[in-house]
Amino acid sequence: MVTLCVASTLLLVLGLQRKQRMSMPGPWALPVFGNYFQIGDQVHISLTEMRKTYGDVFLIKLGLMPVVVISGFETVKKVLGKQGEHFANRPNVYCFSLLADGKSMTFSEKYSETWKIHKKVMNNALRTLSMSEVNSLNYSCRLEEYVCAEASDLVNTMQQLSKDHGGFNPFPLITLTVANVICALCFGKRYNHHDKEFLRIIEINNDVQKVSGSGLLADFIPLFKFFRSTGLNELKKFIRTLNDFIANAVQEHYGSHDENNIRDITDALIKLCNDRNKYDKIYKLSNEQIISTVNDIFGGGFDTISSALLWCMLYLLKYPEMQEKVQKEIDEIIGTSRSPRFDDRKDLHYTEAFINEVLRHSSFVPLTIPHCTIMDTNLNGYFIPKDTSVFINMYQVNHDQTMWRDADLFIPERFLDESGCVDKNLIEKVFIFGMGVRKCLGEDVARNEMFIFLTSILQNFKLVKEPEHHVDLTTVFGLTMKPKPYTLRTENRL
Ligand code: HEM
User: How many other CB atoms are there within 10 angstroms of residue 154's CB atom?
Assistant: First the structure.
């Protein structure tokens, strides 16, 4: 206890010294806990409220750690665009260091020339494999083949669930469906929906979602590691299980690797390790770093897309008249004799507008992954020292009344121009994939997947809420926020 008190006092003094150097507005902070209790469990909403008082750049404290909160589109553009390299690191928090055993490009690797090469390797692996040609006239690329196969299974299973149970909870099915696409891309293998190991990963992933909000904040507060460690422990357990699951899959690949038959992203990465001397600069990455790329792709594509789909379905239940408009567009442009394809996206303007309004309105990834300054820098007249943690509030930008008319209302038509076509410039302002050097690598994959799953469902079914249920759009903070559990019924359209 004495050690704890001494450590707290020391950290407090260091924290105060830092605050003196970093003078900017912000709410009054409690000793030791900082603003933790003021922020509560709706972090994105509290930070959005605070911005009204303190402006685009303000300081909060999580425990003793100062965190600069950035809001406002113009300021965010400076932080992620013009001054992007100054803010390109990730904070040194414990949970991030556990991911991929500290070799995660996304969470733990330090921003550097080697990091840039690593991100490039990941981008190439994802693009090459997802966009590679397939031996079928029906599909434009491997990703389309995988997604359409899963979509067809999804529709059949929904049909069966409706027949057997009437109303059902779509969460497990949607998560399994999306996880199977990323497994196919990464490991060339889809899992049976009853596979025990696979179900365990899904289950743990759901559990971690429940604790990720508090776990993330607690990770910034050293004392919470001693006193409120439940969230952190759960998070650690999940990360270990996920690491083991991926390590096993990679090990199996080493055993069956054939460099003339690249089956998936893992094979491509193993080949890159074997050929590393042929490529300029790749030699700077260790084999472990190259292979860890698969963890980042798997992690990135697992929970985000399933959350997006669950939100889309919830908004469809809330606004049945919009559901009818999407269905009318599907009927007119795709019809009933064939399934949706990637290429249809460019013609289904209302559907695209609807999906983008879900991304904006729900802002289910409310903050970017935390950033950290790589050097001393200045922003809007404020000095920010090297190694300062930075939260970027995407939810605020997506709900900014000066950018979006009636920002809190759900209006897909805001993305359509007078001729009914999507306004691409406005869609680019929807801030959910980040921006700049740290931008998400999976945006294209995600947008194509969301489109196919949603249109396949709506081509086949009308989604209806249970009569006694009230559609609840509120949520609990996390890196990725899922809606609260809900059930739905399907009525056949075909
Ligand atoms: C709707 C789906 C998705 C959303 C909303 C989303 C959003 C984000 C956000 C906000 C970030 C952090 C940006 C920052 O820190 O500034 C990110 C990073 C990342 N995402 Fe996604 N993502 C999605 C899907 C995917 C998919 C499908 C993949 C891979 C297949 C993926 C891979 C990544 C990777 C590797 C990073 C780390 C980039 C870096 O640290 O430089 N994401 N994503």
Answer: 24
